[in-house]
């Protein structure tokens, strides 16, 4: 009997005894969260956690580390796969911080040869000896030694990372990594390098999983990604601070704007756009860069402020790569022999934005709101308070407060524009007609003016729509708005002057048109998720659309880019069919852009002014468990908890002239945003009849008679 057969029998028995025995330790993205008594796998059979207990370097340079391996339930693991399922392979790296430096140097390097030549890179140990101590504990003695005369008073860090192979048990492989810092002489660690927290990275990246999935912490990355290491394919350094800055700035690197490319290995990062750099509608670094999206001062990194207090030529030059600090080219301060003078001019924060201070130089003008670091803007806030005469067949009046950033009344003359949007019913937007004179599909927009908007001295304002609600309207309707304050000039009269258009947040008010209870439109995604995870501040269409509740009113199932396609600036766009811009389809396609070519698909939208938006180079930052980017399986990055599981059955069909299925039923519309292949569309079409979509038969995440459907959304997207 093989070891695998033994384990299958044991796991089957364990499944019978453990089912329902307490809360599962697994989350919605773990495949084992969906175990039933019929499964051969059970909670506790999966997971890999590594904890380093001790480490040492002898006077002879012998390096050793003792660590413990456990599964998700805290049970000790056998790395051979005999006493517990799954063989575990671990790797080991070691580096130190010189007493006169602040960055790691690896004790172990190897030479790699590529198109650019032969270069050294930090490497994992080889030839060491692993000893099992029992109860999940192991000691590893490195094959490489610390060099003669190594500094026993310097901070040394050992990294351990590896994989637990479980595919033969129909369980995904597990990955883990950790680090341990110590002084070989036994003294306490005082010198560290902890500038960016892994938690900051995971806001956008879901879970960092590099090099096959085994490297999952910044603390581990910086042991190998040191100034010693160079990519042999391109000759570019893979020093962490340089590489990461360049990857995130991507398309806005001066070298790329000048026609160059930025690659590491075969990966071209030149198209990258940092999603929190400025507004989502102008995602460039030319008007500021939100450094603290990564250098988060509250994420736990002990040296999070170093990006402000310790500027260096290497770090700054990674983004400003048209500056030569040695010669002084493009550096107003002239040539710099070393980093010792950088902080004299580039102080953390100056008195004004856009100066030479670190915060000032990177400051985004739109962020100069009241209460911010540089509160130079006046602020604008609109709050919708009530709807009067909001009944079928009548022209409703929207009442609202118009205030500045200090909470005082703002004169309507200070508004450059204000447009009101009305849509309904909230059961589903898209196909309501507001009259033959209204060309916007399923919604109505009207612009306020100084003569149609009335305001009191306290800022209480109102606007009465010219058009009426449909005479046959029923249920709940919604009103929102978008607009901007009259442009303001920051630091007027100075060489740093910048003109800023400030827009209020678009709240939405719901009202019943027939006396039935008010039912808000279903909430599926969260603006807070968009902002907190990646974008910092959604500011679309010139910055005036900032709330997904408003987005879905216009980007409804019947909307395409037809109004602007005739004015397309790219000739081919003029003759191509219109493109669907229904919100769920649009957002899924945009975020999945870089994967669409794999499905033989693409997504190009014509925007305002005929602008051309091809999303085929979008690199979604989510990581797969094995280290690939562009993983869109974690729906909760955008969705409110569990809403991705509520399939939009019997909702409005989507008009999609460029789609393989037109019109596309609601579930098909949502799912085909990511599942874009012809085969996937064929599957969706085959499971739709004149009676509707049958998707819930297999893909319904709600338990039916206590059983979740086998291909439920949550199960299909589980990866771990």
Mean pLDDT: 92
Summing up helix and strand content along with how strands pair, one would put the structural category as alpha+beta
Span from first to last CA?
Answer: 29 Å
How many H/I helical runs? 18
What is the total tally of β strands? 26
- Quaternary structure classification: single chain
Q: What overall geometry do the principal axes of the alpha carbons give?
A: globular
Low-confidence stretches: 1-22, 37-41, 279-286
Strand coverage percent: 15-25%
Radius of gyration (CA) equals 29 Å
Which strand order does the major sheet show? 1-2-8-7
Q: Could you say how many structural domains there are in total?
A: 4
Could you give a short account of the major beta sheet?
4 strands, antiparallel
Percent helix? 10-25%
What order do the helices and strands come in, and which of them pair?
Blueprint: H1 3-18, E1 49-57, E2 63-70, E3 87-97, E4 105-106, E5 109-114, E6 117-122, E7 129-134, E8 137-141, E9 155-165, E10 174-182, H2 198-205, H3 218-224, H4 240-249, H5 254-257, E11 263-264, E12 267-268, H6 306-309, H7 313-319, H8 342-345, H9 358-362, E13 381-388, E14 397-403, E15 415-423, E16 443-447, E17 453-455, E18 460-464, E19 476-485, E20 488-490, E21 498-500, E22 509-512, H10 527-535, H11 548-554, H12 571-575, H13 583-591, H14 593-596, E23 604-606, E24 612-614, H15 666-671, H16 678-686, E25 688-689, E26 692-693, H17 696-699, H18 713-717
Antiparallel strand pairs: 1-2, 2-8, 3-4, 3-9, 5-6, 7-8, 9-10, 11-12, 13-14, 14-18, 15-16, 15-19, 17-18, 19-22, 20-21, 23-24, 25-26
Helix pairs in contact: 4-7
């Amino acid at each position: 009997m093989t070891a695998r057969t033994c384990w299958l029998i044991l796991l089957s028995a364990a499944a019978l005894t453990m089912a329902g025995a307490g809360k599962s330790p697994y989350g919605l993205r773990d495949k084992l969260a969906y175990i039933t008594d019929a499964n051969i796998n059970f909670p506790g059979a999966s997971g890999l956690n590594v904890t380093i207990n001790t480490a040492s370097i002898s006077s002879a340079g012998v390096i050793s580390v003792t660590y413990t391996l456990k599964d998700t339930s805290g049970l000790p693991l056998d790395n051979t796969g005999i006493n517990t399922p799954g063989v575990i392979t671990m790797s080991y790296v070691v580096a130190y911080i010189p007493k006169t430096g602040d960055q790691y140097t690896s004790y172990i390097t190897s030479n790699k040869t590529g198109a650019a030549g032969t270069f050294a890179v930090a490497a994992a140990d080889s030839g060491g000896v692993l000893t099992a101590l029992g109860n999940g504990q192991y000691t590893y003695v490195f094959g490489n030694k610390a060099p003669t005369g190594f500094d026993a008073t310097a901070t040394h860090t050992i990294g351990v990372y590896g994989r637990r192979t479980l595919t033969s048990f129909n369980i995904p492989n597990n990955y883990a990594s950790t680090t341990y810092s110590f002084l070989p002489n036994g003294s306490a660690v005082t010198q560290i390098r902890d500038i960016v927290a892994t938690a900051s990275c995971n806001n956008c990246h879901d879970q960092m999983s590099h090099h096959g999935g085994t490297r999952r912490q910044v603390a581990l990355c910086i042991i190998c990604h040191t100034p010693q290491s160079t990519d042999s394919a391109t000759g570019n350094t893979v020093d962490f601070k340089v590489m990461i800055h360049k990857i995130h700035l991507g398309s806005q690197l001066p070298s790329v704007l000048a026609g160059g490319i930025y690659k590491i290995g075969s990966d071209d990062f030149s198209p990258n756009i940092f999603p929190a750099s400025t507004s989502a509608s102008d995602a460039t670094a030319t008007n500021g860069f939100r450094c603290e999206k990564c250098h988060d001062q509250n994420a736990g990194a002990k040296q999070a402020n170093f990006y402000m207090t310790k500027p260096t030529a290497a770090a700054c030059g990674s983004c400003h790569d048209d500056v030569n600090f040695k010669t002084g080219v493009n550096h107003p301060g002239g040539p710099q022999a070393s980093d010792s003078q950088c902080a004299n001019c580039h102080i953390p924060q100056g008195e004004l934005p856009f100066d030479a201070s670190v915060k000032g130089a990177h400051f985004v003008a739109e962020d100069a709101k009241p209460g911010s670091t540089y509160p130079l803007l006046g602020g604008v806030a609109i709050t919708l308070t009530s709807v009067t005469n909001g009944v079928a067949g009548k022209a409703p009046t929207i009442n609202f407060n118009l205030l500045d950033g200090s909470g005082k009344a703002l004169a309507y003359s200070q508004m450059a524009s204000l447009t009101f949007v009305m849509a309904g019913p909230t059961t589903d937007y898209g196909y309501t007609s507001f009259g033959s004179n209204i060309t916007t599909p399923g919604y109505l927009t009207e612009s306020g003016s100084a003569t149609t908007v009335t305001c009191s001295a306290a800022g209480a304002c109102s606007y009465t729509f010219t058009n009426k609600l449909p005479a046959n309207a029923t249920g709940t309707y919604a009103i929102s708005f978008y607009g901007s304050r009259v442009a303001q000039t920051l630091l007027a009269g100075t060489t740093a002057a910048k003109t800023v258009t400030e827009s209020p947040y678009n709240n939405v008010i719901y009202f019943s048109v027939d006396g039935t209870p008010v039912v808000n439109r279903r909430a599926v995604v969260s603006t807070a998720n968009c902002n907190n995870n990646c974008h910092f501040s959604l500011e679309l269409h010139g910055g005036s659309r900032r709330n997904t509740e408003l987005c879905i009113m216009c980007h409804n199932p019947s909307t395409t880019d037809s109004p602007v396609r005739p004015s397309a600036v790219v000739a081919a766009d003029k003759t191509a069919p219109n493109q669907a811009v229904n919100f769920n389809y649009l957002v899924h396609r945009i975020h999945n852009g870089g994967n669409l070519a794999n499905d033989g698909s693409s997504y190009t939208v014509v925007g305002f002014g005929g602008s051309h938006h091809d999303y085929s180079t979008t690199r979604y930052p989510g990581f797969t468990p094995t280290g690939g980017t562009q993983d869109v399986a974690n729906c909760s990055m955008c969705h409110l908890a569990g809403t991705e599981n509520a399939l939009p059955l019997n909702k409005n069909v989507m008009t999609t002239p460029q789609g393989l299925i037109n019109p596309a039923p609601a579930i098909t519309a949502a799912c085909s945003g990511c599942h874009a292949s012809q085969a996937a569309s064929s599957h969706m079409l085959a499971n739709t009849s004149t009676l509707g979509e049958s998707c819930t038969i297999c893909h319904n995440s709600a338990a039916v008679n206590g059983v979740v459907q086998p291909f439920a959304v949550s199960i299909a997207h589980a990866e771990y």
